[in-house]
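Hi support team,

I'm filing this because I wasn't sure whether my run with fe (iii) ion finished correctly. The job status page said complete, but I'd like someone to confirm that the output block is well-formed before I use it downstream. Pasting the exact inputs I used:
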Amino acid sequence: MALSREELIQAVSSQMPAKRWKHTQGVMESAVILAEKYGADPVKADIAAILHDVAKYWPVAEMEAVIRDNGLNAELLSHDKQLWHSEVGAFVAERDYGVSDSEIINAIRWHTSGRVGMSLLDKVVCLADYIEPGRDFPGVEHIREQAQRSLEEGLIAGFDSTISLLLSQRRVIYPLTVLSRNDLIAQLHN
Ligand code: DGI
Ligand code: FE
Ligand code: FE
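And here is everything the job wrote out:
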């Protein structure tokens, strides 16, 4: 059964600390602005933004169980646990919140890593997650500037910042993040 927007907001906000809900509200705002600027569906962008981090505070064991028990992308289990919430979030958006729109589900699923061939809505939600007004990490202003040029320029700047951070901390990089970033560069050159 599909929930109304207000019911979704109630259900999602009650599952996370106030700070994460504030972040989510920022992503909703930025996603709608980007959707309107770049011709994506602002209503879908809003719903995807509401749900994008729904699983962010799930216990790791529960995320792992959902991934295993439902045949989700098990490759994630051998990578950083920070990557799991988008896959789990997409699954629960459909199962528990009645979201049946595959564009919205995909935008939730790919909001952290990106994917090769990101849809317009994937790009909007992923970039909004980087630039929402509450973000203040080093380099966010550069990403905001690039986001004014194009979704692709904004996302390349975003993924570059994530990859640089992981490199500087000698952490493993999820290969799809690199492939997504390379694909966006290829898209700009085509
Ligand atoms: O959920 P948010 O904090 O709003 O943002 P997100 O969904 O983009 O999560 C990013 C987190 O995942 C961030 O702490 C970095 C971490 N991470 C770890 N390895 C990777 C990674 N992110 C990406 N994109 N690629 C990785 O390889
Ligand atoms: Fe996230
Ligand atoms: Fe987020």
